[in-house]
Structures are given as C-alpha cells and as structure tokens.
C-alpha cells in the first residue's frame, strides 16, 4: 500500500502512486535546484576520525557548488567543524545520519509536469540488513528522507520496497537501468520477483522500460549498484565501466553488461550507444589505510590488501560541471577526456577521491541531486 506524507497538509490518497498522480523521476543530466550531501564522521568507515575523508568531501562540495546550491547534512557534534571547513556558499544543516551515503539514504526526487516536486521514501536496511548489511543500526539514516521532506515542504511517497538510490539510473524519458544482483537480492526484498519489481519501479518513478544488467562491479559491497557500473549520460547513451584485462574478474562482468546493452532498446525504441570508461587500477587497501579504521563487529571489515570496487562511472552530473573521481594517475586523464567529450557543455572537474573509495563508494554515492521544479507547492 502506498502512503503519501506531506508537510503541506494536503489529503492523503493511499491508493495513488507517484505515477498515478503524474510524477516521474528526471534524469541526472536534467536541470537541478540543488545537491544534497552528508558529512563523514563514522570511525569504522572512515580512517583517522574521517579527517582525510572530510577533506575529500569538501572538495566535492566545493566543485558542485560552482554549479548549484549544495546542502551538507551534519550531525550536531560535527556541525561547527563542517561549517568551518566548507565554503560559505555551501549550506550546512543539522541532519543526523549513521554514515555519509546520501545517494542511498536520501530521497529520490520526482517531478510533475505542472512544476511540483515530491520524493520517494524507499525502505532502507543498510545494504542488506542483518544478512550482509554494512553496519547496524541505521535508524538515523532511515529518518533522513522524512526530514528533507519537512525542510522542503514537499510530499513524500512511502514505497513498500527496500531500494537505494545508487541502484537505479534513469534517462528521464521512461527508461531505467539497474542490476539483478542488487534489486533482486534476497537480502533486500525476498518476496519481490522481477515482474513485481518492474511494476513498483513504474509506479514510483514513472518509468516504462527496465534494462536489467546481471551484475554490478567486482567486489562492490553494495551488492552491485548500477551507479558504479553504468549510467545514462544522455537519452539513448550510457557510460560503462570497462576492463580490457581478460584475467580480471571485472572483464567478464563488463562484457556481459555490454552484450545486454547492445541488444537493448530504451522506452522510445532507440538502440543504446555505449561509451566505455576504462577502470582505474585495480586498487587495493594499503596497510596504513586499514590501520586507521575502528574495528567494530557491527560494521563491514576493511583489511589490508582488499581490492576496492573502482570505477570512473561513479561521477556526479551538475548543471554546469561534471565532478569525477581521480583514482589512478595512469588513467585519470583519459577518463577525464572521455567525460569531457560526453559533456561538452559542462566543465569536468576531477577530485582526488581515494579517501571516498576507501569508505566503500565514490562521488555519485555521496551526492543526491534535487531536480529543478518551478514550484514546491504540493
């Protein structure tokens, strides 16, 4: 059952889904009003009290702020520190969280042709709950969407399904791309099959066509989020994390994804153009990087020598910039040149992002776009 919560005291229509009411999720490359982020501080995710990660987050926020308003949610005990580190034009708000992955714990915004903005509030269980999840508890993360709805004064559609924002990409024209590994994982929604998941995605995001890739990136601790493997860069065009080394497990994953993409059509009937982004590395956690992390039984272990799920696809598309991770000096320039070719009207900014990667994700994972809407009136 769908429940619509709204801070503007409009009536709730329990049976109405966002699609029923005319809402749909815009593409990331569509105009934004703002970008939302969270401040890192969790010592079992981020080494040395998250100080190196905080510097990386500041660089990401600074780059995106050239393009649009940036909100950074901060726990009270870190508020003054964050405010002093972040640029004056970045808006720091008290917004408690368990960790800093706004893409996954924040809202998925949807818009209406008449200019209204709303959000989808998915269930969240920290990427698998007690069956492979990355930390416990996740109670503060679970309240973030409600709080942002209150801040913005927009309707909040409560969806009866566990889903993270990094698990989906849309083209804004009726097509969604995702992975079976994540959305059909029994640690998310064990009783939801592919047909029902497609219906739910259509109901809540207004999409008509789902392109299913089998798996996400090798060793991705999110159980295969699409945003580390493949994303829409324009209608009918995607970027794909690529590996030329046949001995690397990522090679087979990228090849099988390419086969699906080359045989797929989008909701408008177009064949997809695939742009390959050669993966960084492979990259591994160094001894000194692992030694700075708190060891807790309730969190995902990070050990020296562990391979990280590296990808240049994990970038953020802003109004006038594209902010990409710099991860491998041997390949950063090539990836940046490829992205600049894909986004000729935006300035591609590279940000040193190894500290974000050490926490388990990257730039797309720590950001969530708020699409432009001509009115916030519900």
Automatic annotation (TrEMBL):
Similarity field: Belongs to the agmatine deiminase family.
Name of protein: Putative agmatine deiminase
Regions crossing the membrane: none
Alphabetized NCBIfam families for the sequence: agmatine_aguA (TIGR03380), PRK13551.1 (NF010070)
EC number: 3.5.3.12
Broad EC category: hydrolase
Keywords for the protein's UniProt record, in alphabetical order: Hydrolase
Catalytic residues of the enzyme: 365
